[in-house]
């Protein structure tokens, strides 16, 4: 079935390059499968894009609407997406224009598109490879959650090299996900995240109000801070590709972990936190009372001098997942770099 080009008046682009493909020849029961909207941010991704999209096309037990926001690619990325639309059988494919202000704003532009309608929502990078049950496994957990309560699934990743060789796994974090952890740490990549409709509605509203450092950290903070459930699965179902063009690198080596502690001590973490707290400030009404208490103590710790800052940090209850991370957190607080 050929791709259908959308009417340019459908507020996607001024020229008709957004594409749609409805599944054909599927069994009648396919309509009963859960629909997942996969939100993919793309910029000059032709090197690995076709392989990533193929892995999405092989997803089992779900329907998939693939939304691709292209952020001004100058390579063949958009051509690859158009070709995909001609054979897509899981749902539909739409190509939209990104804001061209970096990856975080590109994902944000997808989060706030009210016309994206599905049962569940997943983020997607342009260069990874998904296991064929990645979405089904996430959806199986999300189905156990109350539909009116935000729920976010995330997981570890298998780390692969540019040529696809497995080189390790992301850290297995031992402590439970929570808002008090989210204030000072992002524990999972957006490429592992799948959320229910309640979480997406929460994030749509919050993301209309403000930008953020990264979509994955923002989702973790908002869902946990609004009283939602966050599940961190220890079993990876995605191959996270590391190569020279990656914007965010791996975090499974001692060198990488020490580098992140260095971010704390040198003040880079403080800059990120400034952005996060500014975003949370305009979303306070979306947070629980308990989250606001933790946030108040954390903000107080950042304003106070030693040793009062440490007392406020302790009252906040914030924590990082590892002993070294926790030591770095308190050291950064003591020297005014929190």
Task: Give a structural overview.
- Helices cover 38% and strands 17% of the residues.
- The chain has 338 residues and is α/β, with parallel strands linked by helices.
- It folds into two domains: 4-241, Spore Coat Polysaccharide Biosynthesis Protein SpsA, Chain A (Alpha-Beta Complex); 254-334, no CATH class.
- It has a seven-stranded mixed β-sheet, sandwiched between helices. A four-stranded mixed β-sheet has the order 7-13-9-10. A two-stranded antiparallel sheet has the order 1-2.
- The radius of gyration is 20 Å and the shape is globular.
- The model is unreliable at 1-18 and 24-28 (pLDDT under 50).
Question: Tags for this entry?
Answer:
2 domains, four-stranded mixed sheet, 338 residues, 13 strands, seven-stranded mixed sheet, alpha/beta, disordered N terminus, single chain, Spore Coat Polysaccharide Biosynthesis Protein SpsA, Chain A, 38% helix
CATH architect. name of the largest domain: Alpha-Beta Complex
Order of helices and strands: EEEHEHEHEEHEEEHEHHEEHHHHH
Poorly predicted segments:
1-18, 24-28
- Estimate the mean pLDDT confidence: 89
Give the strand order, joined by hyphens, for the main sheet: 5-4-3-6-11-8-12
Say what the CATH topology of the largest domain is.
Spore Coat Polysaccharide Biosynthesis Protein SpsA, Chain A
Number of helices: 12
């Amino acid at each position: 079935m050929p791709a259908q080009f959308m009417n340019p008046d459908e507020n996607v682009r001024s020229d008709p390059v957004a594409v749609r493909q409805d599944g054909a020849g599927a069994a009648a029961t396919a309509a009963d499968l859960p629909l997942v909207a996969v939100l993919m941010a793309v910029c000059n991704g032709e090197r690995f894009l076709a392989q990533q999209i193929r892995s999405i096309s092989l997803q089992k037990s779900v329907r998939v609407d693939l939304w691709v926001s292209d952020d001004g690619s100058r390579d063949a990325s958009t051509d690859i997406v158009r070709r995909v639309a001609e054979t897509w059988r899981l749902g539909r494919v739409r190509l939209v224009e990104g804001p061209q202000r970096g990856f975080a704003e590109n994902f944000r532009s997808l989060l706030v598109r009210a016309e994206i309608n599905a049962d569940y929502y997943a983020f997607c990078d342009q260069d990874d490879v998904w296991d064929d049950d990645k979405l089904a496994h996430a959806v199986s957990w999300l189905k156990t959650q109350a539909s009116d309560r935000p729920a976010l699934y995330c997981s570890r990743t298998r780390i692969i090299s540019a040529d696809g060789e497995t080189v390790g796994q992301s850290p297995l974090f031992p402590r439970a996900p929570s808002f008090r952890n989210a204030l000072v740490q992002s524990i999972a990549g957006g490429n592992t995240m799948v959320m229910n409709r309640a979480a997406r509605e929460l994030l749509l509203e919050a993301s209309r109000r403000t930008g953020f450092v990264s979509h994955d950290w923002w989702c973790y903070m908002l869902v946990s801070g609004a009283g939602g459930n966050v599940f961190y699965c220890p079993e990876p179902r995605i191959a996270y590709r590391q190569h020279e063009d990656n914007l965010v690198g791996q975090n499974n080596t001692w060198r990488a972990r020490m580098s992140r502690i260095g971010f704390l001590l040198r003040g880079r973490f403080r800059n990120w936190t400034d952005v996060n707290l500014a975003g949370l400030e305009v979303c306070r009404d979306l947070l629980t009372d308990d989250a606001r208490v933790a946030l108040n103590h954390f903000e107080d710790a950042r304003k106070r001098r030693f040793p009062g800052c440490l007392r406020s940090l302790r009252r906040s209850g914030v924590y990082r997942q590892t002993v070294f991370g926790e030591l770095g957190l308190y050291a950064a607080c003591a020297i005014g770099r929190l």
